[in-house]
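Milestone M4 deliverable, item 7.
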Amino acid sequence: MHIHILGICGTFMAGLALLAREAGYMVSGCDTNVYPPMSTQLEAAGIRVVEGYLPEHLQPAPDCVVVGNVMTRGKPIVEALLNSPIPYLSGPQWLAEQVLRQRWVLAVAGTHGKTTVTGMLAWILERAGLQPGFLIGGIAADFGVSARLGQGAFFVVEADEYDTAFFDKRSKFVHYRPRTLVLNNLEFDHADIFPDLAAIERQFHHLVRTVPGQGLIVVNGDDLNLATVLEMGCWTPLERFGTGADWQARNLSHDDSAFDVYFQDSWGGRLHWSQFGAHNVRNALAAIAAARHAGVPVAEAIRALAGFQGVKRRMEPRGTVNGVTVYDDFAHHPTAIAATVAGLRARLDGGRIIAVLEPRSNTMRLGVFQDQLAGSLAEADRVVLYQAPDLGWDLGKVTAALGGRGQVCSSIQAAVDAIRAQVRPGDRVLIMSNGGFGGIHAKVLEALGGS
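Output delivered:
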């Protein structure tokens, strides 16, 4: 059976393509936003990807078309599909029908940390010998891929609140029917599809409604917005992580590289690991709690996370040249930006942080967070902001609030030049974007090598 995927290079759709290929489907796809690591993952799997959304990409006609949520009415290929007899469905629907049925689904939802917690949880189950399937919104370093079918009963899925498709405006995660659900946190985001926080809370409650009474919801006990969601009604047992909660991290080292795990005041073990930041400590508690529901003892989960290598584009070192290390991170919301910078700051032993940011998400483009951006970068020593031509608002307002620590660049090359002009040995260049950022990481490393 041949399926063709529209928007195949998105993190979710690329993972879905791998699952379909592994399940024996002939898979092809098209996209206009092709960049690593998803493009290289698809190439390595032998999946054919064509550029653009032209009607001729549907010839010869596939047996089914899987439509990504990047697709809209008016695109030539969408109009051709609707005028044809070719069956079509959304990615989440395909996943639910072809992969998740009859599996024990462990879903990870939240504004921040979904990809990392999903990777942690899949790795814990893997090390426990449970051979889970998974679909992660990034490439997990421990697995080398973002998705696989797995041989066991368990399937771990990153549960995104973004809408499903142009013909299905529900959040993706309502399709997944988890038995174990992690609610990591909840803030306003995706201003292009949600008018306010209440609209997102409503979608999260739709997800809560799908979890069976014999399941488990692992929830951030410090998040007031998640408390609001649960107050709408909950029919499933809860375990909370955070301050004064069921799951706690105690006796943290100054750089968060070691801490004790407690469940209901019972010591489970001490975790020593390589991950950065207080946010990842909370992520670990969520993953350990969810894994325990799947039958993995706490001590075994801690041993697994001690070797967890992380996910690509989450504080990923891209190289060190002349004493300057360049990191790549996916942070694109003020809360995530602040947590990422703070996590790196805690690990520094001298040296400065040069934060480089591309405000690229739809919410950022709309200017929703422009008043919060400077505050999220407060712990950086220097800030370089990329003013993309289509951003729609002036980043000068942010640099003014940074008090001389920031500058705006209107091209990728100008940003590279600005970084090169100010770095010195021992500095860390932290590049943050939820896109490819014009390949700036390699360009910075090349420029530093020539300095």
